[in-house]
Structure formats: C-alpha cells, structure tokens
C-alpha cells in the first residue's frame, strides 16, 4: 500500500494544521494511501532512527512531505532512500537557527513535552545535512516570500533545479496550503507508479 509520510516542524506535532489538512484530504479523496505522521522530537538521533524504521517497514512506495524542520528531514529521506519529497517553507540550515535554544528547556507548541538541546544534537543534525541534491526531479519546493521565520531565498537557492512554487506574501505556515494538496499527493505518489 502506498504511504504518505508527513513530517512536522520544530516543536510541532502530528496535530499541526497542515498535517491535519493532509490527513483529512487523504481520508476523503485517496483512502488507498496510508497516512503516517510520527511525533518527532528535536533530538536528531531519535528522529533519524524513527524515520529509518518507518522506511524499512514500508510495504510499497513512499512519498514524503515536510514543513520547516520537517522539510530538512524530508530532504534527508529523499537522499537516503530515493523517494520523492514536497518541502514546504523548509529549513535548509537549521544548525544556524537552533543554537539559541541550547541548554534551556523548550516546549512543544501542541502538548506539554519539553526538550533541552545540546551541542551533540547540533552536531548530529549537521551530520544529516544534504548540501547537494542527487536528483532534483524528486523534489517540489513550496515557499511563501512572507515567511517570518526562515529566509525563503535560501530554499530557492538550495532547490534551484527542482520544481518550485514561490508565492508572494503569506507566512511560515504557508497560507492557502490546501490549494496544493491534491497536486502534491499526485507528485509524490503518481497513480501510474502505484
């Protein structure tokens, strides 16, 4: 059975708005696709282990969709396992942004989980970085220029040879994302390849 793996962002959860939108759309329009959205911690070793196990357990084609830090992980998965990825306002260099969170408790936006990041976490994250993309045709970048958290131009540069949707305005949440769900699912898991 084909599977869509949705990866939420930093301190977010499977209850994030876009994750729920994708889940609900698949339930209504593509019940033939299994939806998976694991709860990811900010600790890279745990995230890498979780995602690797999901890929090993997959019983069919997998498409990956990731937002913000989830876009970083979606790119890592695409490079490691050769799957397609849709990255939404992705974090292309989280190692530069996360030092501000070192050694102080940070709380998940959706629950009471609290984490403390260390230098080891940053080093583990850097080890998963993908400076170059082996097959740009596997990616679709979606960014909005009004992203208040990340500089969209960094993503446009990194994914320059990939399919891109660059919308003026908007924000880090990617306003109007629901307009793109059907096309994104079809890109990740084309019916003729299932």
UniProtKB/TrEMBL annotation:
<dbReference type="InterPro" id="IPR029058">
    <property type="entry name" value="AB_hydrolase_fold"/>
</dbReference>
<protein>
    <recommendedName>
        <fullName>Esterase YqiA</fullName>
    </recommendedName>
</protein>
<dbReference type="Pfam" id="PF05728">
    <property type="entry name" value="UPF0227"/>
</dbReference>
<dbReference type="InterPro" id="IPR008886">
    <property type="entry name" value="UPF0227/Esterase_YqiA"/>
</dbReference>
């Amino acid at each position: 059975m084909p599977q869509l793996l949705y990866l939420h962002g930093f301190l977010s959860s499977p209850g994030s708005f876009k994750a729920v939108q994708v889940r609900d759309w698949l339930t209504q329009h593509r019940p033939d696709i299994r939806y998976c959205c694991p709860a990811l911690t900010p600790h890279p070793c745990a995230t890498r282990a979780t995602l690797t196990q999901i890929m090993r357990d997959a019983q069919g084609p997998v498409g990956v969709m990731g937002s913000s830090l989830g876009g970083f992980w979606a790119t890592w998965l695409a490079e490691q396992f050769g799957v397609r990825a849709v990255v939404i306002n992705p974090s292309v260099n989280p190692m530069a942004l996360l030092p501000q969170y070192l050694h102080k408790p940070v709380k998940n936006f959706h629950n009471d989980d609290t984490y403390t990041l260390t230098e080891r976490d940053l080093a583990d994250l850097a080890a998963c970085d993908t400076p170059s993309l082996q097959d740009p045709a596997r990616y679709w970048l979606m960014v909005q220029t009004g992203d208040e958290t990340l500089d969209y131009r960094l993503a446009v540069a990194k994914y320059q040879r990939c399919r891109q949707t660059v919308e003026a305005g908007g924000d880090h949440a990617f306003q109007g994302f629901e307009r793109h769900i059907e096309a994104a699912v079809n890109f990740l898991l084309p019916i003729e390849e299932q």
